[in-house]
Amino acid sequence: MGGVNPYIQAAKTQKPERPFKVTFQMEDTGEKIEVPVDPAQIPFGDHGLEGSLLDIAEGAGVEINHSCGGVCACSTCHVYVAQGLETCSPSTDDEEDMLDEAPAVTTESRLSCQCVPNGKKDLLVIVPRWNRNEVKEGHG
Ligand code: FES
Fold first, then answer.
1. Helical residues (DSSP H) of the chain, grouped into ranges
2. CA nearest ligand 1 atom 3, residue
3. 33 domain residue, yes or no
4. What is the pLDDT of residues 67-101, one digit of tens each?
5. Does residue 1 sit within a domain?
6. Is residue 11 a part of any domain in this protein?
7. What's the pTM?
8. Is the CB of 49 inside a 6 Å radius of any atom of ligand 1?
């Protein structure tokens, strides 16, 4: 399952017009993975909104848990956008409702499948440790 959930309010997204960079930092190990994003390559996969942080992560082989397939129906893809949050699509009421179910929510919290950067700034995205643990368990 992936793509867009027809039963929720559409997110207002703006496609990037120039290349930018997303750095994913693993909260548990501190490891950083820099991912150059070429707007011409979007979408990278078929999970989450096109050009979302989950889509970008998938394209680069960065594992972020996404139990519902990226349709805003769980909260497992919760990440923190530590830099560049102001360049991301605003969260919808549906995303906020799902985030209410997530642990340790902060003002930087987003569902990575619903958060689409417009490319005007580079981003720093923290992948929470519990997310990483679930991914490891889920894939053995
Ligand atoms: S993967 Fe389920 S809400 Fe993002």
1. 53-60, 93-99, 129-138
2. 72
3. yes
4. 999 999 999 999 999 999 999 999 999 999 999 98
5. no
6. no
7. 0.91
8. no
